[in-house]
Design goal:
This protein has 21 helices and 20 strands. By secondary structure, the protein is an alpha/beta fold. The strands form 4 sheets. Strands 3-2-4-5-7-6 form a 6-stranded parallel β-sheet, sandwiched between helices. Strands 11-10-9-12-13-14 form a 6-stranded parallel β-sheet, sandwiched between helices. The longest helix has 16 residues, at 78-93. The mean pLDDT is 96. The chain has 3 domains: 5-170, Thiamin diphosphate (ThDP)-binding fold, Pyr/PP domains (Rossmann fold, 3-Layer(aba) Sandwich), CATH 3.40.50; 188-349, 3-Layer(aba) Sandwich (Rossmann fold); 354-548, Thiamin diphosphate (ThDP)-binding fold, Pyr/PP domains (Rossmann fold, 3-Layer(aba) Sandwich).
């Protein structure tokens, strides 16, 4: 298309051309020309949110679900700074995202005008690429490049500032067609080397997830792993990388992993790492697997050459997308490989992930997760932010096909509810649950209004122990019984949910949970369960008293 159009119209047309079908935003006067263009664009669903932090998290989660950039629009100054948390999460989580920021007029720049910020400078350390469009004629070029940067190599966020007057310019522009992502297949020679090293290995294990991983990748990788009995561990908050019902699944790494899995990692003579960066959480501060991993062979498969040998010395670096890599190894028919200990590792995980009733607990979260497993389908999407509450689901929930875990590896609070809104809108045929701690929930609980307004069907579980639980745990470990700044005085979350238009109930005992869950699942729209728990039981594995008496 080359007819004269406003910059706002050109921008929307080119987002449609690249495959954008949903935009999350909080409106701002700085991009009214875009909102006007969206008025006549039926191909894009415009989701109006209540705070830009929610906008960023929804776009990040949407990108995680689709593999296409989640798209967000916010205004300058406070809008952009609020949304920056989503950019940070998208970068650390390796998820594709585009954040467009309405900016000051070009003629007003560098005067510290109203809400003015140098956005390329601000976002340069947070994003894969941060830029500004000065000429409306070049909008198609910038949109296509941004889409490619966000999805190629290690996926991540791109931030684009849009001067308000540029969006109102009426110009000719040549639209660009949808991009076709390049194939990134592994080299046949590298595969031969990998198979040769597996043939001589005694105790190999795989660590998977991260950049470019999707459901098809998981299916093919599981097929390969099951054939040779290769134990497969998920990187931190990548527990849906393969079906947890797979006989190769060995459990998850991160905070509070199965000690038997930890021991398997330590004793492994070969590590096959596919898609994961081996970050701090996955490796327990770079100690479980050290950057030089003496005595262990590291085969590292990653789509971005800049990640290979960045922190970890790779004995065999393979630059390939996990998808093409998994397809290639699943298609190998003459493997001639020994059968490894996958079945034994899976049995250990089954035992670890089965919650036992806990003595002295009025509301036992382990039994609540078990009740959810019995009542909800295997492909339920579990969304959570940061906090000790999440450890019960990380340990006891059994994740289905990807995407079924939306959780920030960046450890950002307030992610769960916005992510659940994005998931419910993207997958209306699947059950969606937001699990949030009390502190976590109130960082973006206002997005319940967005969920109700846009007809989302989702369940919210608020775990209320009246404290910032993770920090309280560290506080008790370092300064026992010296509480400072971690206690919370909370509202009645069920009443708050009803005020937003949700169905809501309060749960105070284990016996009350399953019936309340059943009632919630019968309701349409947004449902909220307020779980009142005892801070004494701070994680699935320890208590406040045990921390004080170390």
């Amino acid at each position: 298309m080359t007819a004269k159009r406003t910059g706002g119209r050109i921008l929307v047309d080119n987002l449609v051309a690249q495959g954008c079908d949903r935009i999350f935003h909080v409106p701002g006067e700085s991009f009214l020309a875009v909102l006007d263009a969206l008025h006549d664009t039926l191909e894009i669903d415009l989701v109006t949110c209540r705070q830009e932090g929610g906008v960023g998290f929804m776009a990040c989660a949407d990108g995680a679900m689709t593999g296409r950039p989640g798209v967000a629009f916010v205004t300058r100054g406070p809008g952009a700074t609020n949304a920056s948390i989503g950019v940070h999460v998208a970068m650390q989580d390796s998820q594709p995202m585009l954040l467009f920021i309405g900016d000051v007029d070009r003629g007003m720049r560098d005067r510290e005008g109203f809400q003015e910020v140098d956005f390329p400078a601000m976002f340069a350390p947070l994003a894969k690429w941060a830029t500004r469009i000065e000429d409306a004629r070049r909008i198609p070029e910038y949109v296509a490049r941004a889409w490619h940067v966000a999805t190629s190599g290690r996926p991540g966020p791109v931030v684009i500032a849009l001067p308000e007057d540029m969006l109102c310019d009426v110009v000719d522009a040549v639209d660009r067609p949808e991009l076709v992502p390049p194939l990134q297949a592994p080299d046949a020679y590298d595969l031969d080397l990998m198979f040769a090293q597996l043939r001589t290995a005694k105790r190999p294990i795989a660590i998977v997830g991260g950049a470019g991983w999707d459901a098809e990748t998981g299916q093919d990788f599981a097929k390969f792993a099951e054939r040779i009995g290769l134990p497969v561990a998920g990187a931190f908050r990548r527990q849906d990388s393969i079906l947890n019902s797979s006989p190769a699944w060995a459990g998850n790494l991160g905070y509070g992993p199965n000690p038997k899995l930890v021991q398997r990692i330590k004793e492994a003579d070969l590590l096959l790492v596919v898609g994961a960066r081996l970050g701090e959480a996955t490796t327990d501060g770079y100690t479980l697997v050290t950057p030089d991993h003496p005595g262990q062979t590291l085969i590292h498969v990653h789509p971005d050459p800049n990640e290979l040998n960045r922190t970890y010395r790779a004995d065999l670096p393979i630059c390939a997308r996990p998808f093409e890599f998994a397809v290639a190894i699943a298609a190998e028919e003459q493997l001639d490989l020994p059968v490894f200990a996958g079945a034994e590792a899976h049995a250990e995980w089954l035992e670890w992930s089965t919650p036992k009733p806990r003595e002295g607990v009025t509301l036992d979260l382990g039994q609540c997760v078990l009740a959810m497993r019995e009542a909800m389908p295997a492909d339920t999407i579990i969304c959570n932010g940061a906090g000790n509450f999440s450890s019960w689901w990380h340990r006891y929930w059994r994740y289905g096909t990807q995407p079924s875990q939306l959780a920030p590896t960046a450890g950002a609070m307030g992610y769960g509810v916005p992510a659940a809104v994005a998931a419910a809108l993207r997958a209306p045929d699947r059950k969606v649950v937001a699990v949030a701690g009390d502190g976590d929930f109130l960082m973006n609980g206002q997005e319940l209004a967005t969920a109700v307004q846009h007809g989302a069907d989702m369940l919210v579980i608020v775990v209320d122990n009246s404290t910032y639980g993770t920090i309280r745990m560290h506080q008790e470990r370092e300064y026992p019984a010296r509480l400072s700044g971690t206690a919370l005085k909370n509202p009645d979350f069920a009443a708050l949910g009803r005020a937003y238009g949700c169905w809501a109930d309060t749960v105070e005992t284990t016996a009350q949970f399953a019936p309340a869950l059943a009632r919630a699942l019968e309701q349409p729209g947004v449902k909220l369960l307020h779980l009142k728990t005892d801070v004494e039981f701070i994680t699935p594995a320890t208590t406040i008293s045990a921390l004080r008496n170390r």
